[in-house]
Amino acid sequence: MIEKGKISMRQFTILVFMYTLGTSVISLPSISTTFAHENGWIAVLMASIIGMLLVFMYIIISKLDEKKNLFELAEWIFGKWIGKAISALILLFILFLTAGNLRQIGDFLSTQIMTETPIQVLMVMFLLTALFAVKLGLEVTARTCEVFFPYAFFALLALLVMVTPTVDITKIQPILQKNMVGTFEAIVPSLGTPFLELFIFIAILPYVKKPKSARKGYLIGVGLGSFFLVAITFMCLTVLGADFTARNLFPTYVLGKTISLVQFLERIEIIVAIAWFFTIYFKIVLNFYVLSLGMSHFFQLKKTHTLSVPLAFFIIVLATINSPNIIYYLDFILYYWAPFAAVFGILIPVLVLIVGKIKVRKKDNITKTE
C-alpha cells in the first residue's frame, strides 16, 4: 500500500458523515422535489435505504482482502490489464466528480455570497486548500475533519430546531396520495448524489486501524448523514413549500433566511453556508485524495501526492469547461448523473463482488486440496 498513515474508526465515521452530506445537504431538497413535489422527503428516505444496502455491498467487497484498497482489489480480482482498465474508468469518474463538486461550490459562492469575485478565482482558492490537505496526508485530513465536525453537525441541527416553529404539515399533504410516479422517479437522482458515490471509501478502508469497527462506522456515518438529508428536505417542504423548493437552486440556504426568533436571532443562512463549506470541502478533499492514491497506484509511484499538482490543474480546467452555467450543471445532475454514477456505484461493484467471491472460493478449494 502506498499510503502509510492510519486513521481511527471515529475519524473514518466522521469522514463518511461529512462526505454523505457533501454537496447534497444544500441541493438535494430541490433535486428530489423537482420530480416528487410534496413527496420529495419520501424519495430521499427511500434513496437513503437503497444507499445503506449499497454500503453493505461495499463492506462485503472490502472483506475480500482487508489489506487491499479499491484499485489493488481491481487488479487482484480481474488481473493486471483488465484491473488497470477498470481503475482508469474509476479514476475518470472521480475526476469528473471532483470537478463537478468544485464547480458547484464556485457557482454557489459567485451567485449567493461573493458576487463580485470571478468564479475561477473562487475555485482556485478552494482547490488550493484541498491540495494542501492531500499533500499532508489522510491522517492530518481526518484529524482536521474531527475539529470541524462539531460545527457542521450542530449548525445543521440548530437549523432544524429553529425552523420547527414555522413548519406547516399541510404543505406536504396528502402524503403519498398523488404523484406516485414522480416520487419513484425522484429516487433515481436522489440516489445519484451522494449514495452512488460512496464506493470510494473502499479505497480508504484499508487505512483504518480496526477494519471491522470501521465497517460499522461506514454504516453509522451514512445513516447519520441520511437522517440529516431526509430531515432537511422535510423542513424545506414544510416551511418553503414544494413549488418554491423545486424552483430554488439552494433551498437549504434559503431555509436559513426564514429563521426569526423574537426579532433577535434572524437570517442565519451564513451559518448554514459555512457548515456546507466544511462538508463539501472534505468531500472534495477525499475525492482528490482517492484520485491521487489511484493515480499513484496506476503509475506505480512511491508517494500518494506525487501527481496532486497536475491533477489540481486538470480539475480546475474541467470545472471551468464542464458546464456553461449552474442551470446546465443542475440539469445534468437531475437527468444524467445517476445513470452515469450507477455504472461505478452499482455495476462495477457487483462485478467485483461476483468475480471476487469466485476467486476466493477457488483459492480456498486449492488450499483445502493441498
From TrEMBL:
TM stretches of this protein: 12-35, 41-61, 81-99, 119-136, 148-167, 187-208, 220-242, 270-290, 311-330, 336-356
Subcellular location(s) of the protein: Membrane
Cellular component per GO, a single term: membrane
GO biological process: spore germination
Keywords attached to this entry: Germination, Membrane, Transmembrane, Transmembrane helix, Transport
Recorded topology in the membrane: Multi-pass membrane protein
InterPro entries: Spore_GerAB
Pfam families for this protein: Spore_permease
Similarity-based family: Belongs to the amino acid-polyamine-organocation (APC) superfamily. Spore germination protein (SGP) (TC 2.A.3.9) family.
Protein name: Spore germination protein KB
Organism: Salirhabdus euzebyi
